[in-house]
Amino acid sequence: MLYGNVLGVFLIIFAVINLAFAGLVYFHSTRARTVLFYVLISVFASLWSIATLLTLVNVFPFEVFAAAANLHYIFGYIAYLSFFWFALYYPTGSRIPFVIPSLISVITVGLLFFIPTTEWVIKDILQGESVGERIVFNLPGYIAFIAMLTAVFLAGIGVLWAKIRATSKTGAGTRQQILFALLANLTAGSLGIVFNLVFPLFGNFSFFYINPILVTTALTGIGLYNLMRFNLFNLKVIFAEVLTVGIWVILLARTIASSDAGDRIINAILLLVTVVFGILLVRSVLQEVKAREEVERLARELAAANEKLKELDQRKSEFLSLASHQLRSPLTAIKGYVSMLIEGSFGTFPPTAREALDRVFVSSDRLVKVVEDFLTISRIEQNRLKYEFQTIDLCERVRDIVREFRPTIEKKGLVLKDRMGENERCDIVGDSGKLSQVIGNLIDNAIKYTKEGGITISTALVPGKSLVRLAVADTGVGVDKEDAEKLFQKFSRADGAFKVNASGTGLGLYIAKQIVDAHHGRIWVESEGKGKGSTFYIELPLAPRGGDTTKKPA
Question: Is the peptide bond before 91 cis (omega within 30 degrees of 0)?
């Protein structure tokens, strides 16, 4: 009697937990076919467990035993049939035509009605002291039933195995997902067939009551692992709710089963406290899952937006490169012909026409520089900007550039201070053309943004370091600390720069930084604020003595 009571308690607990698990999975999912059939497996496995419980001899009336014996086989078969349908749609649909499993289901479920109404499976149910003494099988019909159930089970296993083979070359994640589902149901299904069908055929009912517990444990346990491994459904919520409900069921059973009034009161209080904390726990988990799902959704949207931005940026770079190439040739031609007109190669022009030509030349020259800047930007972004490194005397290169800019500086009425010795040398490994572009850009900016005062250009070796420092100082508009931090970004200009020079693009300093970085140097600006001038610095490593002077500096 004690054995039967213990088994009964365990069967009820496992059946209720399994039913609760199935219900929670269903209500927390997308209600897809896969989920529906997974839930049906759990539901009918639980009903099968309950029907098995009701066949406990000397515990329930004979009439209940007789009904439960028939339901044991009916619910068991429907659980296996549900697995067959689950296999067809897990994780995606099968190629088997819908009409075939539909006919199998209609025919076999129709045959189940013969179990309680005929002697097809159970020939007779008698009075006895054990299940083996009470149930008399119709052997041909019983063997046919086993064959029918096994065939449906193996068909489901075969469908999953075919899907594993089909996905072996397409995705390891999907293949493992199906493999876990196959193992879970193969374990649970095999236990049910062997212990509750084959063993009783030979009169062995040893595992008849224990097997539902083993099956439910295998089905739910491995199923939970499968859910954890592949994050199916809202697992965290489901697990919390199943655990909470399971504790409630156990405490409720203890409360009902308590023979002492004191124990009953204590268990009832524990049940009440557990209910309150269980509800709070589930609410907390729901909020956490909701927040996590929102973060994951935003992360997916951000990733998609980033990919789109990368694609747009790539197209923009390609467009800039194409447009710059197409514009450079005609602009160069325009600039060249205007220069020839100004020089008198095609005859003399009146002063008013010459003034107009001067303006055209200046505008075309400015436009050529803008196009060159855009072309350089596109090459930088596509990693196509090439450098020709060699040993050059940076001080000599700066002196040459200063000589080129001196007439422009003096024409604007600015004072030029050159603090470089005539015989001073500062050899570096670099690209002469690219560095000349950078130095010219700094001096040109100093001229544009300085209305009065002067410009000071100097070079010097950094004490204690193998570095040479170039400084271009002016008494111009100056730079705020906030602007200084973003001045070397694309299309960025200091506040107030538009008032002094409206034609600037904000690309020159960005290009200068990219070129200096490629030489493993650094470029920065220092200023005391607006209207107080600014000083741009470039530091570059000196060339190694006796080393290879044609390679990029280390």
Answer: yes
Do residues 195 and 207 make contact, with C-beta atoms less than 8 angstroms apart? yes
Q: Helices marked H in 194-260 — which ranges?
A: 199-201, 210-230, 235-257
SS3 readout for 375-419 = HHHHHHHCCCCCCCCEEEEHHHHHHHHHHHHHHHHHHCCCEEEEE
- Among 122, 22, 106, 13, which Cα is nearest to 66's? 122
Contact assessment for residue 21 and residue 221, using Cβ atoms and an 8 Å cutoff: no
Q: If you search the block for the tokens 């940026």, which residue do you land on?
A: 313
| Three-state secondary-structure class, residue 258 | coil
Which tens digit of pLDDT belongs to each residue from 9-49? Answer: 666 666 766 676 666 666 666 556 777 887 888 888 888 88
pLDDT recorded at residue 420: 75
Task: Specify burial of residue 173 (Cβ count, 10 A radius: 0-12, 13-18, 19+).
Answer: exposed
Domains (ranges, CATH) in the chain?
40-211 (no CATH), 304-381 (1.10.287.130), 390-541 (3.30.565.10)
Percent of the chain past pLDDT 70, that is, above it, reads 79
Phi, psi at 29, each rounded to 5°: -120, -175
- Contact (Cβ atoms closer than 8 angstroms) between residue 391 and residue 425: no
Q: What is the pTM of this model?
A: 0.48
Kind plus residue range of the DSSP H or E element containing 208: none
Say which residue, 315 or 551, is predicted with more confidence: 315
Please report which residue ranges of 91-138 form alpha helices under DSSP H. 99-112, 114-117, 131-134
Instruction: Judge whether 370 and 505 are in contact, CB under 8 Å.
Output: yes
Which residues, other chains included, contact 319 with Cβ-Cβ below 8 Å and sequence gap of 6+?
Answer: none
pLDDT tens digits, residue range 71-106?
999 999 999 999 899 889 887 788 888 899 999 999
